[in-house]
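Regression test case RT-17, inverse folding.

Input:
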């Protein structure tokens, strides 16, 4: 047996897209279906957009979302490395999601929405629109971009996990290896001790505070 380095695991949720739209919709839980119907009745629409103005508008929403969640935003060029799905209400972008594509898998890279419009359920429509688009374009898997193993009720990551589980996917665990022992230990500590992660994020915000002023 060849030693590949120190071992940890990562978890994610994967949706099998090799089904009809009807089958995919039936796999959704009642909250996801309700949210989609609410968004449609509120006249929200989702479009794939690649123009510069749309990217700029979305990036402003993304930065606001990061500030609200006390997360350091990525640079706009990094955000633009994927395909943008924009959620639009009355001609205005109110939310968006960026996916990355690799062979037959599409992966959720990031998403963001304006807080004042969350009552219209834009994120539910975004997820469903990406699922449909992926199936229609011959992709096999929609990777929801991570699942936080060990998250506990009351934690934000627990609520994110619950939202991702709405969409009929399955939790998948993958082994990861690194020659850097401190990296692997750091992953384990952050996963098992949420306070450590919060402290790390606060330090990162302080070190990158100028990004919030741009």
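Golden output:
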């Amino acid at each position: 047996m060849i030693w590949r380095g120190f071992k940890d695991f990562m978890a994610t949720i994967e949706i099998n897209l090799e089904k009809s739209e009807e089958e995919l919709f039936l796999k959704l839980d009642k909250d996801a279906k309700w949210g989609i119907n609410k968004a449609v009745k509120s006249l929200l629409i989702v479009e794939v957009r690649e123009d510069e103005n749309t990217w700029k508008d979305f990036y402003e929403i993304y930065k606001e979302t990061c500030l609200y969640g006390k997360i350091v935003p990525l640079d706009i060029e990094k955000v633009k490395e994927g395909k943008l799905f924009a959620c639009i209400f009355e001609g205005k972008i109110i939310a968006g999601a960026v996916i990355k594509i690799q062979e037959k898998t599409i992966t959720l890279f990031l998403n963001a929405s304006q807080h004042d419009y969350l009552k219209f359920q834009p994120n539910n429509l975004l997820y469903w629109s990406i699922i449909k688009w992926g199936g229609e374009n011959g992709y096999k898997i929609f990777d929801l971009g991570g699942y936080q193993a060990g998250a506990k009720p009351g934690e934000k990551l627990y609520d994110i996990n619950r939202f991702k589980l709405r969409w009929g996917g399955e939790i998948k665990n993958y082994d990861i290896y690194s020659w850097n022992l401190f990296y692997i230990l750091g992953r384990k500590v952050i996963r098992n001790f949420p306070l450590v992660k919060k402290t790390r994020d606060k330090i990162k915000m302080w070190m990158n505070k100028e990004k919030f002023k741009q």
